[in-house]
Amino acid sequence: xxxxxxxxxxxxxxxxxxRQQRATARAKAKTDLLVDAVYQAAxxxxxxxxxxxxxxxxxxxxRTKKKEEVALVHATDWQLGKRTDGYDIETCEKRIMQFADKxxxxxxxxxxxxxxxDCHIMFGGDMVEGISIFPGQAYEVEAHLFEQMFATSRLMExxxxxxxxxxxxxxxxxxxGNHGRLGRKGDMPAGDNIDRMAYRISSExxxxxxxxxxxxxxxxxxxxxxxxxxxLLVHGDEIKSFGGNTPAFGILRKCNAWSTxxxxxxxxxxxxxxxxxxxxxxxxxxxxxxxxxxESENVYAAEFVAAKGKPSQRLHFxxxxxxxxxxxxxxxxx
Length: 334
Description:
The structure is a single chain. By secondary structure, this protein is of the alpha/beta class. It has helices spanning 2-48, 89-111, 145-164, 194-205, 248-262, 299-305; strands at residues 69-75, 116-123, 169-174, 212-216, 221-226, 229-234, 268-271, 278-281, 287-290, 312-319, 324-332. The protein is globular and about 85 Å long.
């Protein structure tokens, strides 16, 4: 009798497992169809615009024979599609193009002493606002996912094209954030992300353009290489925040752990997510650069953390042979 009961329980468990496996397969298929449909719609819209106009390569700068440097742009946390009293899609677009102008102006200052021919852009995630990250978010959303993705890819294209006016080559590295995920955390695979779709659309717009190179993957981190300089690019949501504060200790602890061989070797870390510019020093002497956001009037920050973010992005200059940051700017955008 006991053996009969055990056999029946085993059979019930087997059937339950099979039902769950079929349900999981259906959910995965549904997710894949959703991702493909959204991506294809935005891609078709981008194709209708035609290829971007690529500016001519700037004239060679022969003012100095000193070591060449590379401009490193950290563009992150645009949350394009968010709408508050002081922020919307139009405001984001104006600030990012203002950022491009300031990058060019600061590069001219740097060129007075060093040649700067190339630019490396790091897109750090949360480029879109999303629509279901937290309860009540719908009240601060200006556009649906399709519009967010299309507007974001168009703005990234505009930034790259603008920087091609002042640099010989532009290399882009992409990392996705948490706002672009589909559904709540755990509902769908993390890689099914609107940031990644926007990156892919933008990269395809520059296919065949020798002066633009894109690097992207579905990993939670990217290693950015500029000569001998190696940087770890993450979004920042890997570090948990308690009470709404920027967790400086948690950031240090996590980055120190990553530097012990958890990921490929790197010198410095770049992240966004917390919307507050900050620089921290790791145990091995490497720097952690936390960059800001072009967003302003963050209702959540004002109510929960009693903070009011000042819109910004980050620009560094890298000497690739000695592998060092030679100049660091927080570029304010208000």
